[in-house]
From TrEMBL:
Protein name, per record: MarR family winged helix-turn-helix transcriptional regulator
Residue stretches making up the HTH marR-type domain: 10-142
Stored Gene3D superfamilies: Winged helix-like DNA-binding domain superfamily/Winged helix DNA-binding domain
UniProt source species: Sedimentitalea todarodis
Record carries keyword DNA-binding: yes
InterPro entries cross-referenced by the UniProt entry: HTH_MarR-typ (IPR000835), WH-like_DNA-bd_sf (IPR036388), WH_DNA-bd_sf (IPR036390)
Location of region: Disordered: 149-168
Alphabetically ordered keywords of this record: DNA-binding, Transcription, Transcription regulation
Record carries keyword Transit peptide: no
Amino acid sequence: MDNGDTGLIDERLARLVRLAARAFNRTLQIRLSGHGISFGQWIFLRILWTKEGQSQRELSRMAGVTEPTTHTALQKLETLGLITRRNLPGNQRRQHVFLSEKGRDLRDQLEPLAVEVNDVAVGGLDRTAQDALRDALLTIIDNLKRDEEEAATRGARMPPTRNSSVDI
């Protein structure tokens, strides 16, 4: 494939990563929609498949989204009968989220869709190129996480991202 034909060859890496992430999400959403699940709901199911019993606040943090966004997704998942929310003994204020049997069973149907999207995305990349890409992305993530932590020690805080759709 000639990447010059896409008009993106001279784009900054941050924009390319954002466009790739958006394409991953859209491609998975196409597959999930056949099961009545949105991409936003998928994020929480995926977390709960590995670690149930989280509070809404913990799920928000793990998903990297706001609590109102989490609340909306959890309401829909509860309506679909995929999760239940309940208090744990000794804490009547905070509800924790658990998968229903139906929610657990959905994993076998939905996870292969994500694997398929990954396979589509790396089509044409040999194992060496895939490993190099993974290593590079992990390094980028670590570098940016460290920069954010250093900014926090200087008193800088993450501003709200609402109404902020500027490309880097």
